[in-house]
């Protein structure tokens, strides 16, 4: 047991547990009744009015008990339910309740009958639980409560705490205004508004501190805790209108997340990135060296897309910043659009449609062909190219492909040994090469000339891959019969006006970089990338990182985890382990992964450590980043 001279007074409902116990009791007792939902809504309304001090507490209690129709036997079920509903950060910090047991109290306007058995498991004995008690009739029905108990009365917590006569600094942790009043009355020294389960403005606005979790409370008080840095202090900045599910995923895990609809130019990002730990972007945001230099806290960048060349990957690595992307989530969306566009181009659908929009009936078969039996040339036989190959064959196209890497053909697709071979043979050429800057003007005047007369070009890869001037010329001259372009050498940062030389040309489909913009793809990315980010922040795992040595280690219980990122020079591991040995720390597991530039080591320790070891590890030569996880 450790003495701090402070007393910690916890509220129960919606603080120690995620729920209001009487709401749960109502769910149990009203189960199967036709008017259950209305009664529960009524109970919740009364609960909130009581918590916010809008009606007298006694009144709220009386009304709720009447509506409950509960029996003694229901309490056992209630306790079982509540056991499953302990607040997340309370359950993960059981250690605190063990070590500071003598200084922890519960003051609740709930009932000892269900609070005692729950908090007992957190080392809080019944005599430190101040709460109401039920009255039962002979048949065991709950018919009321002990009206002499101060806690059944309005602002009863003030009187209760006064009567307890606690010595030392008294800190109250609760979600409601009825907890704050102890501080307002001057009986408690500090009030922490606990918002992990519910955010009540009236409590938060008056609090000395708002604590979104117990981790934050423990951090503020420098008390031992399950994670070294509370998640609400980890700032996440999501740009470019990533799906709101990403916001939900990261906020639900406790991070502080800001969502910005568009991309930011370098100067603005340099300002905005300060203090940000996690940056989420899509294909527009340039994460340049200057941005990375300004990023004083940045740990990880999530590209909510496939392409990552908008990020200075190597420079990020040298700074110990890990980058993840979503390599598969939007591939199917691109493939479906490619198939659709190939058919639309071959049938001159857009030309016919524009004519009709302009009031012209232009029924003709001229320049309208089936895709069946036509040659499709896929350039870049990667994740997208391969899927497209399969679908295109399924609709009867003959597939040819060209890739710089040796890539196995799927189905009956035929590999071309040169780009020229592919261009010579294809009725439609579709580009799916990666966003490597070396692919700039990959398709220029010379390559277009190598294409068959009347062929079509589809580009859903990157804008700089095609020389737009040369393409516009070829379309105007009639050498090419059509094109579908989704990506452009220069794209705007947000929605608005846009100009390209391809505008107004017949049989040219123009789309604003929407190849991967489907609800399904964006929704999937919003799970995939946040999961990678959370896995790295919470456990140190870097599996699937695009610029970093990959490590996965399961989270350990009753252990401490240190993450050390360093320049990959000889002797670092020896130095790290020498420091650990000097502080007599026992390594329970350790895993190192390196590439040419950096080394990344996760070390798990099986016992308490002297905080000075952290300083010593940070001082190890060639350390880039050091983080204590838990
Ligand atoms: N329009 C949109 O909204 C979207 C565009 N994309 C873009 O699509 C492209 C392809 O994506 P994935 O298939 O996932 O990439 P991937 O990396 O799986 O495949 C790319 C393939 O291109 C090959 N390649 C690269 N340079 C080449 C060259 N000069 N000549 C021949 N082959 C070359 C690579 O060897 C690789 O096999 C990327 O540029 C990506 O950014 C991806 C998703 C959505
Ligand atoms: O995934 C990619 O690489 C894309 O090009 C899609 O980018 P976006 O998310 O639409 O900015």
From TrEMBL:
Signal peptide residues are none
SUPFAM superfamilies under this entry? ACT-like (SSF55021), Formate/glycerate dehydrogenase catalytic domain-like (SSF52283), HAD-like (SSF56784), NAD(P)-binding Rossmann-fold domains (SSF51735)
Q: Which UniProt keywords apply?
A: NAD, Oxidoreductase
First-tier enzyme category under EC: oxidoreductase
**UniProt keyword annotation of Oxidoreductase present:** yes
Under InterPro entries, the record lists: ACT-like_dom_sf, ACT_dom, AHAS_small-like_ACT, D-iso_2-hydroxyacid_DH_PdxB, D-isomer_2_OHA_DH_cat_dom, D-isomer_DH_CS, D-isomer_DH_CS1, D-isomer_DH_NAD-bd
Which catalysed reactions does the entry list for this protein?
(R)-2-hydroxyglutarate + NAD(+) = 2-oxoglutarate + NADH + H(+); (2R)-3-phosphoglycerate + NAD(+) = 3-phosphooxypyruvate + NADH + H(+)
Q: Which GO terms describe its molecular function?
A: phosphoglycerate dehydrogenase activity
Query: Which Enzyme Commission number(s) are listed?
Result: 1.1.1.399, 1.1.1.95
Q: Where is the ACT domain?
A: 561-630
**Which PROSITE patterns does the record associate with it?**
ACT, D_2_HYDROXYACID_DH_1, D_2_HYDROXYACID_DH_3
Instruction: Please describe what this protein does.
Output: Catalyzes the reversible oxidation of 3-phospho-D-glycerate to 3-phosphonooxypyruvate, the first step of the phosphorylated L-serine biosynthesis pathway. Also catalyzes the reversible oxidation of 2-hydroxyglutarate to 2-oxoglutarate.
Its family? Belongs to the D-isomer specific 2-hydroxyacid dehydrogenase family.
Its recorded name reads D-3-phosphoglycerate dehydrogenase
Supply the source organism for this entry.
Answer: Maribacter chungangensis
């Amino acid at each position: 047991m450790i003495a701090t001279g402070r007393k910690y007074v916890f509220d129960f409902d919606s603080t120690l547990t995620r729920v209001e116990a009487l709401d749960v009791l109502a769910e149990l007792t009203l189960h199967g009744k036709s008017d259950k939902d209305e009664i529960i809504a009524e109970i919740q309304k009364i609960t909130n009015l009581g918590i916010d001090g809008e009606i007298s507490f006694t009144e709220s209690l009386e009304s709720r008990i009447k509506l409950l129709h509960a029996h003694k036997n229901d309490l056992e079920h209630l306790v079982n339910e509540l056991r499953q509903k302990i607040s997340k950060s309370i359950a993960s910090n059981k250690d605190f309740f063990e070590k500071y047991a003598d200084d922890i109290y519960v003051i609740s306007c709930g009932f000892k009958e269900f609070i005692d058995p729950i908090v007992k498991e957190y080392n809080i004995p019944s005599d430190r639980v101040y709460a109401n008690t039920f009255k039962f009739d002979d048949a065991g029905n709950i018919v009321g409560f002990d009206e002499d108990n101060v806690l059944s009365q309005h602002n009863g917590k003030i009187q209760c705490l006064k009567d307890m006569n606690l010595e030392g600094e008294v800190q109250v942790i609760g979600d409601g205004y009825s907890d704050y009043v102890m501080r307002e009355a001057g009986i408690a020294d500090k009030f922490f508004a606990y918002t992990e389960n519910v955010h009540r403005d009236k409590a938060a606005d008056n609090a000395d501190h708002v604590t979104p979790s117990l981790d934050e409370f423990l951090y503020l008080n420098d008390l031992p805790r399950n994670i070294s840095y509370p998640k609400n202090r980890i700032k996440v900045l999501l740009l470019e209108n990533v799906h709101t599910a990403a916001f939900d995923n990261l906020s639900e895990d406790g991070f502080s997340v800001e969502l910005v609809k568009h991309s930011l130019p370098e100067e603005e990002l340099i300002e905005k990135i300060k203090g940000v730990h996690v940056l989420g972007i899509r294909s527009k945001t340039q994460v340049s060296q200057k941005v990375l230099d300004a990023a004083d806290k940045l740990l990880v960048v999530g590209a909510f897309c496939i392409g990552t060349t908008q990020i200075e990957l190597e420079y990020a690595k040298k700074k110990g910043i890990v980058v993840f992307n979503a390599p598969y989530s939007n591939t199917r969306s691109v493939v479906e659009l490619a198939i659709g566009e190939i058919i639309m181009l071959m049938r001159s659908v857009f030309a016919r449609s524009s004519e009709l929009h302009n009031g012209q009936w232009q029924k003709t078969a001229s320049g309208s062909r089936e895709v069946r039996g036509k040659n499709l040339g896929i350039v870049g036989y990667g994740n997208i190219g391969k899927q497209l190959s399969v679908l295109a064959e399924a609709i009867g196209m003959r597939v040819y492909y060209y890739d710089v890497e040796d890539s196995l053909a799927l189905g009956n697709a035929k590999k071309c040994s040169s780009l020229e071979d592919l261009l010579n043979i294809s009725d439609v050429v579709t580009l799916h090469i990666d966003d490597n800057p070396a692919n700039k003007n990959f398709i220029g005047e010379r390559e277009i000339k190598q294409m068959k007369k009347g062929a079509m070009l589809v580009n859903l890869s990157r804008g700089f891959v095609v020389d737009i001037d040369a393409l516009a010329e070829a379309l105007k001259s009639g050498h090419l019969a059509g094109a579908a372009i989704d990506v452009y050498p220069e794209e705007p940062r947000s929605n608005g006006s846009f100009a390209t030389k391809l505008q107004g040309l017949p049989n040219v489909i123009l789309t604003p970089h929407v190849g991967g913009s489907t609800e399904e793809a964006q929704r999937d990315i919003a799970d995939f990338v946040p999961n990678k980010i959370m896995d790295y922040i919470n456990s140190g795992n870097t599996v699937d990182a695009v610029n970093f040595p990959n490590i996965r280690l399961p989270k350990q219980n009753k252990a401490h985890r240190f993450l050390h990122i360093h320049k990959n020079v000889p002797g670092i591991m020896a130095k790290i382990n020498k420091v650990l040995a000097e502080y007599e720390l026992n390594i329970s597991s350790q895993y190192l992964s390196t590439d040419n530039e950096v080394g990344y080591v996760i070390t798990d320790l099986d016992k308490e450590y002297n905080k000075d070891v952290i300083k010593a590890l940070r001082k190890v030569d060639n350390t880039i980043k050091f983080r204590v996880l838990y």
